[in-house]
Write a structure and sequence with these properties.
Elements (H helix, E strand, L loop, with lengths): L31 E4 L1 H7 L7 H14 L3 E5 L5 H12 L8 E7 L2 H10 L5 E9 L2 H7 L4 H20 L5 E9 L6 H15 L7 E7 L6 H14 L6 E7 L6 H10 L4 E4 L13 H10 L11 H12 L16 E2 L2 H13 L23 E2 L12 H9 L5 H18 L5 H13 L6 E8 L4 E9 L2 E9 L2 H13 L3 E11 L6 E10 L2 E9 L2 H16 L2 H4 L4 H6 L1
Helix pairs in contact: 2-11, 4-6, 6-7, 8-9, 16-17
Length: 564
């Protein structure tokens, strides 16, 4: 039997704070947001991001409105060093964005870090060393004086190195790593010693970052530690108090939110919470928490599907469908009583009144979503098991977003007929609405040239005639979308694509499913074909058939269309 003995553990540190103020405070504005996706988040991946993924994620972070972005540990990683140089040399840093880099308190690493930042208009150099008793005693074999000396010497090296590059506007940040397990008075002592070297002023403050490197206690205990530090540190007006929480106990967001009540000015985290062990603080969740309370988060989170797609592509980590605020099923009600309450509330909700709809804490439309009812149709009562029936009877593993939409169609059919919708009926609805084998557009042929940049030539038939589209991109779907955009001039984004074999063996067919964003509207398509590439192209075409009338795009005369 595996031993399971709670007696070998001790509760996290408790700080005596009888006069604590944070429980009676209210957050009135958003903090300074700092993304660590490209450093802390990247470090936690089984396969770290490549250059293309880093650039794509960087561009997303900038578009969302993040102004401080930690971009790597350039002294410890050549890929990180190269990425920092790309940002600077290719002029990729907007005027209002500051990059941040991490470095240990070692002279050679600090020297290399500053070399990586040559030419940067602004930069935050983030210095850290571990301060907790277990780190001091068991890892470094040092005492309190020795660990403080490491921090002070590191601070001196940082200040001296910055002086050699006067053209950059430098900001300094210090983290006593494992702050939550460090004696409060000692953490304060080390930070005071670092600030004595840096001599921050209200006009040029430094950043003191208090990390819950490992979450060891409940969020209220962390808030006590932050408030104690904020009320005991000197030069409070000359420092920006930052927190960096982790999710070992599942409280990273709560700990950061309470830390803001306790006096923190700044929060570090990652999009959707990727990070070491159970993850970092989720920037999206905390920002949406504030938004739901009527506070402008200062970030543009109105297109969550883009965030989900980019993060999944860059990290290889899918987002749970119940993820707070942005998960696929967050605004979907399965319960009949919930559906009834939501319907009644929506009928009474007016545009000029504060939002108060049962079971929906925010208006899904704010995130480009819509409320969805899903009634499950089973083989006996006609109310449940759509996905189960499709997999069991037809070998089709439908993505969740397609399950949701198909279940709605099945429910409407059940209500119309007043009886059961069996597997044959469900499969018919699936083909009629998503596969669209009857067109109006049909894939006649295609030619794909595989190279570093794929090129495609697609022959399409529709009521106006036959025509050829040409495009290029990374993969067949991207090339086809490029070809369509070139003809239709329509904004298209592939939000999700999935495929699988139906059965086994060389004769197995392929099923392809695609979810597109067409000018802000989400539309799904599917296809089944013996050719995997052909299935993917047909799935995109099926979605276009559902959303775009032929006349809207194919208006040219027949001879012009053929000539194209």
């Amino acid at each position: 039997m595996i031993p399971f003995d709670h007696r070998k553990y001790r509760p996290g540190p408790v700080l005596a704070m009888p006069q604590r103020q944070w429980p009676d405070r209210t957050i009135l504005k958003a903090p300074v947001w700092a993304s660590v996706d490209l450093r802390d988040g990247n470090q936690a991946l089984l396969e770290p991001m490549g250059p293309a993924q880093k650039r794509r994620l960087w561009q997303l972070l900038v578009r969302l409105g993040l102004k401080e972005i930690e971009v790597g540990f350039p002294a410890a990683s050549e890929p990180d060093y190269a990425f920092v140089r790309w940002l600077i040399e290719e002029d990729q840093i907007p005027a209002d964005v500051t990059i941040q880099v991490l470095v240990q308190a070692r002279e050679e690493l600090i020297r290399r870090t500053f070399e990586s930042l040559v030419g940067a208009p602004r930069a935050i150099v983030h210095l850290y060393n571990s301060t907790s008793p277990v780190q001091r005693d068991w890892v470094f074999g040092s005492d309190r004086a020795g660990v403080k000396a490491i921090a002070v010497q590191g601070a001196r090296w940082v200040r001296e190195a910055a002086g050699r590059y006067p053209d950059t506007h430098w900001s300094f940040q210090y983290s006593p790593e494992s702050f939550t397990n460090t004696e409060p008075d000692y953490a304060l002592e080390v930070c005071e010693a670092v600030m004595a070297v840096w001599e921050p002023t209200p006009a040029h403050p430094c950043i003191i970052n208090l990390p819950a490197t490992v979450e060891v206690a409940s969020p209220n205990r962390f808030a006590d530690q932050v408030e104690w530090f904020a009320t005991h540190v000197s030069r409070r007006d000359a420092l920006i108090l930052s927190v960096h929480t982790h999710n070992d106990r599942g409280g990273a967001v709560a700990a950061a939110e309470l830390a803001l009540l306790a006096g923190a000015d700044r929060v570090e985290g990652t999009l959707l919470g990727n990070g070491e062990r159970t993850g970092n603080m989720d920037l999206v969740t905390l920002a949406m928490n504030l938004y739901s309370q009527g506070i402008d988060p200062g970030l543009d989170l109105s297109h969550p599907d883009e965030i989900l797609a980019v993060v999944a592509d860059c990290t290889g980590i899918a987002t749970h469908p119940r993820h707070p605020w942005v998960g696929e099923l967050v605004y979907t009600a399965f319960s009949g009583s919930h559906q009834d309450a939501i319907r009644k509330s929506l009928k009474r909700q007016t545009a000029d009144a504060p939002w108060q709809v049962a079971y929906l804490p925010i208006d899904p439309r704010d995130l480009g979503r819509s409320y969805q009812e899903v009634v499950r149709v089973n083989s006996q009562s006609g109310k449940g098991g759509v996905a189960f029936v499709m997999e069991r009877e037809y070998g089709l593993n439908l993505p969740r977003w397609l399950q949701v939409e198909l279940a709605q169609l099945v429910q409407r059919e059940s209500e119309r007929s007043g009886g059961e919708v069996d597997g044959v009926g469900i499969e018919r609805l699936f083909r009629e609405h998503f596969v669209r084998e009857d067109g109006p557009r049909r894939l006649l042929s295609y030619r794909l040239i595989r190279n570093r940049h794929d090129q495609i030539e697609v022959r399409i038939g529709d009521p106006t005639g036959d025509y050829t589209l040409r495009g290029d991109g990374q993969g067949a779907i991207a090339a086809f979308v490029d070809a369509w955009i070139g003809r239709a001039g329509q904004a298209i984004q592939v939000l999700d694509y999935q495929e699988h074999a139906i059965g086994a063996g060389t004769d197995a067919e392929a099923a392809a499913y695609v979810l597109l964003n067409l000018d802000g509207a989400r539309v799904a398509g599917a296809a089944i074909d013996r050719d995997v590439v052909g299935a993917s192209l047909k799935a995109v075409l099926a979605a276009l058939n559902r959303a775009v009338p032929v006349a809207a795009v194919d208006a040219p005369a027949l001879d012009e269309a053929v000539a194209a």
